Amino acid sequence: MLKIPLTSLAHQPRGERVSCSWNYGHQLTVLETESIPERINDQFVASQADKRSWFVSVYLNGELILELPPIESRINFHYVQILDNEHILLVGARCHYNDGQPEKNAAVYDSHGQLVRSFTLGDGIEDINVTSDGAIWASYFDEGVFGNYGWAQPIGQYGLVKFDATGQILWQADKFQIFDCYAVNAENEHSFWFYYYSDFKLVHLKDGEATSYNVPIQGAHAFALCHPYIVMGGGYGNNDKFSVFKQHPQHLKKTDELRFTDPQGKNLHQCIYSIRGNQVVAYEQHRIYFTHLALENKK
């Protein structure tokens, strides 16, 4: 069992934490709001709510490099990504289709917090990765694939979609039978990985060519790329446990198990993990931990 201590991020909260995510330039973004919108009937996530303030903080190597002014919006945002040197992208996971019109659940802001444009990425978004060429990769959970919130023909019907920076579709995963895209990892603009239900396969797209690997884990929520190793989240009911696999041309071979710890060596419990390449962030409402995972000297 490998134990990997993470570093604490010295973040001063500006509101309630929504999410943390890595970006293509190794920046770590933190999204917060003055108050997280309540669920509809304590069950369904709202696509919009009363206008409120949203806060974006950007870190590089653990140092705060940018705090955007408060962003006022009715969209219930869940994800933040850096779009380019001058703009950020905020995306809400849910999106209604009413009277022939879809809601806009993606919004681009400049570094002063001013809205530049908004567009629709569809309902049921599981995660968002933006690459350095401005491509927006959106993965979808089951409701985004099969349709809910008024969508008869969902944008996310194939489980994974690549958009350009204005929301136009560039590619869809129509060659795969994705019911729920559990985890994605945009390594760079040429290399994209995803893991999906119900086949529980890990797929590597390299310049459009796909290589699939069978993974003996059901329900992994995140994975890290530490070539030649791939570190997979533990699956259903094992949120904080990870398995290490060595990558071979046609298969993965398990070599070890792994747990992330706090800086004092205490195992993390019930954290949310967001991973991009080999960059790991683990967070909950009051703490954020991060690392650049390297395993070449671990096995």
Describe the protein in words.
There is one protein chain. The protein has about 300 residues and is mainly beta. Helix content is about 0%, strand content about 50%. It contains 1 helix and 28 strands. The protein has a 5-stranded mixed beta sheet, with no helix packed on it. A hairpin with a 5-residue loop joins strand 14 and strand 15. The longest helix has 5 residues, at about 140-145. It is globular, with a radius of gyration of 18 Å.
**What is the rounded Rg?**
18 Å
Straight-line distance between termini? 11 Å
Work out the helicity level.
under 10%
Order of helices and strands: EEEEEEEEEEEEEEEHEEEEEEEEEEEEE
Largest sheet, spatial ordering of strands: 1-25-24-23-22
* Average pLDDT taken over every residue: 96
Shape: globular
Residue windows where pLDDT falls under 50 for at least 5 positions: none
Report the count of strand segments: 28
Number of H- or I-type helical stretches? 1
Strand content: over 45%
Biggest sheet features: 5 strands, mixed
Q: Helix- and strand-based class?
A: mainly beta
